[in-house]
Amino acid sequence: QVQLVESGGGLVQAGGSLKLSCAASEAIFTINGMGWYRQAPGKERELVAISYSGGTKKYADSVRDRFTISRDDATNTVYLQMNSLKPEDTGAYYCNAYRFDRLGDRYDYWGQGTQVIVSS
Known about the structure:
Elements: E1 4-7, E2 10-13, E3 18-24, E4 33-39, E5 46-52, E6 57-59, E7 67-72, E8 77-82, E9 91-100, E10 106-110, E11 114-119
Parallel strand pairs: 2-11
Antiparallel strand pairs: 1-3, 3-8, 4-5, 4-9, 5-6, 7-8, 9-10, 9-11
């Protein structure tokens, strides 16, 4: 069972930067993908960025030119460098990891969430 521990959230002025980290405290099996979701107050959870095992990365349109996702496969740790932050980036950020079992079924794991607040 994978335990995901997040860190790096906080309060920042618009235009500033934050770097989020998510580390798997236990990784017995192979993680196929790791990424970040966020949920603003009153909004649905949305995908921010994801890094696939093959090296492909995907970003939400709203963050593509400002955020960078990176991954350390040796430790199954994922990072999210957030630059030029905007007030609309405010929300709870959740780390996600998933794997496939021998039958091809997908299993998802989630971090506890870290709060990001961007003031105008």
